[in-house]
Fold these 3 entries.
Entry 1:
Amino acid sequence: MNREEELEKVKETIKDYYSEGNCSLYNTRNIAGDIMTTIFKGKYFKVDICFTYSYFEVFGTTSEEFKEIRSFYDNLEGDSNE
């Protein structure tokens, strides 16, 4: 799987685990010590989720890739409000 394909897999994984009311999406590790579960780990990217507080952490992205994921995530939030 190349980087582009893996980025699409990251977005699909976020969509699969997304539920209305998810707090947010980050590209940095939380400093509060929240319990995280890895839901995707590939060659380029890693996605963790905090089930307790309902947020994602995405690692390995460039600024542009994170913006793309953020836009995708924001659209999921918009879809849940309709």
Note: The chain has two helices and four strands.
Entry 2:
Amino acid sequence: MKKIEGFKMRQLGSEYIVLPESSKLVNFNKMISFNSSAAYLWEAVGDKEFSVEDLAKLLLDKYDVDPQTAGKDAGKIAESWINAGIVEK
């Protein structure tokens, strides 16, 4: 997977939102918000390609979770990013 170019994350209070830099990317039907874990992953992968396994490893490195939970959570996050149109497979 890889982030689709043109989206930037911004902090809004205790939440994080992903906003398009161009009006061509705007879909006003949905707002993309992250919790702190998803924001950490978004920043950690940068502009490079990544997999669900990469996301799970990042979660394991930062949080006190078991590998099964990290894998499950990483899969959900990746799926939500794909469905939101901010990453591509």
Note: The mean pLDDT is 90.
Entry 3:
Amino acid sequence: MTDTPETVRTSKKRNACDGASEIPGGAALGHPRVWLEIDEKGYVDCGYCDRRFILMGGPADVAADIAGDAS
């Protein structure tokens, strides 16, 4: 089992998290739905489940940095 928080790459600056996106049955098994706003850092962490939302192409998007280095 890994202790690393889940990361989600997203194109939206405002995202909802209920901690149950991958759980059949939905939010009843997660946490209350919260809306999170990505700021100038390029990411935001959920205060309940520690899931990190990373803005694609933003300053915290490591995948974009790696793809840019490959070209």
Note: The mean pLDDT is 82.
